[in-house]
Amino acid sequence: MRGCWHPGRPGGTCEGCELSKKTGVPTRMLRYYEEQGLITPRRLDNGYREYDEYLIDRVHKIRGLLDAGVPTRIIGDMLPCLDQGPEIVVTDPDPELREMLLAQREKMTERIAFLEQNRDALTRHIEAMDIMAGVLPARGAR
What is the per-residue pLDDT across 89-119, written as a single tens digit (0 to 9) for each? Predict the structure, then answer.
């Protein structure tokens, strides 16, 4: 996947346009991921970036972790695990990183519980609206 050409832009390129389209992540954010060492496109002789297909999955994983509140510095440490299968091998376990990961996992668990509560409240509200609209029978009438 190559960046696309935009003659009106400085340098003429829009790095990661195709990757941006495929992942829904803005090109500016892709450049940030690159600056943070989270993705590494190949550079062509003309200086353009070329993004391998595997980066689509990696960008989705990075975005998901960021959306879950995991900072990029921790995502960077987790990258080797993102590309491995279910059997993860850690060759140099870092106790500080482990503590950070435990804390992040706990924060995720709390967010998941909060999201589940909100989803359930939305479901109840939708059901109440449907009952009032006659789409569903009243609960006692079922």
Answer: 777 788 888 888 898 889 889 989 999 999 9
Torsion of CA 88, 94, 98, 104, to 10 degrees: -90
Do the Cβ atoms of 90 and 76 come closer than 8 Å? no
Residues 6+ apart with CB under 8 A from 28: none
pTM for the model = 0.65
Distance CA 69, CA 71 (A): 6
Report how far residue 104's alpha carbon sits from residue 75's, in angstroms, rounded to the nearest whole number: 11
Q: Which helix (H) or strand (E) holds 5?
A: strand 4-5
- Do residues 103 and 95 touch, judged by C-beta distance below 8 A? no
